[in-house]
Amino acid sequence: MAEISAQLVKQLRDRTGAGMMDCKKALVEVSGDLEKAIEYLREKGLSKAAKKADRIAAEGAISIKVSSDFKKVSMAEINSETDFVAKNDGFKELSAKTIAMVQDSNVSTAEELHSLELDGAKFEEYLKTQIAKIGENIVVRRIAKVEAQGNGIVNAYVHSNGRVGVIIALKCQNEANVAKLPDFTKNLCMHAAAMKPQVISYHSFDADFVNTEKTAIIAELEKENEELKRLGKPLHKIPQYVSQLELTDAVLAKQEEILKAELKAQGKPEAIWDKIIPGQIERFKADSTLLDQRLTLLGQFFVMDEKKTIAQVLADKSKELNDSIEVVEYVRFELGEGIEKQACNFADEVAAQLG
Questions:
Q1: Which of 58, 96, 98, 305 is the most buried (most CB within 10 A)?
Q2: Structure pTM?
């Protein structure tokens, strides 16, 4: 077998844009003949892989893998250039192999995937081969892995279009209840896929963030009120508070006194106040937590029961099982979020490909 020097491999790589290992393999196959190696790579389609890697990949699919005992979940966002390729059988096979590899390994980031082997090759080289075969740039953009600890359970959901994936982990006190929670956990994941909460609860907020968002929410509601007034429709109530973070014991106590004064002015018998006030306090909380309803999982109203927040649904489930159930981890991927797509008309695309 001819000696293949690093310099010769570099020459071939510079001329074809193929991966280093592909170049070395090609040179070995043709006994070190540079021109034959170029032809070899062209016939295999590998000389195009590096050029494709310059293109923006913002389509693709979210993949998940859930262990049979609901103790471990892996999720990956794998991007392609077009939605068409994301539906390709080759892309689906790549996604399935990749997520299985992630689930069975100790990697925690997309970068760490390159140290693993898939189908007898380093993952980086395997991916380049698939790029050449499928005909578009493909990127494993990010991965997430969640493992349930102790009396915990984790489940996941990917929407039917493959563009949104969610992982949620729950913890309970009674180990016997863990087996009763997979479907419930998946329903919470489906809610999060649809409603896009950013964090689990208002505990992730600080006072400055809440104040900034409150200003924006009030301005938004006042602007909408201008149009509602013009149309003769009921106006939005402008809130004094927008998050549970602001609803201190002192605030709630003051509101209770206001409600008692209103009931007294209405002539309601004091004996029935205890039946009226709890519901009014809940209404006050709902009106005063618009930020939580927009951004937090626990503060949102459940899509399967719009009269209850996720926090209330969890409380109901806890009561049903005589347990205390809480959300301990939440991850949501939406395909292509944060990727800046290039605007290019059809004529420009054709010209670029011809060039």
A1: 98
A2: 0.78
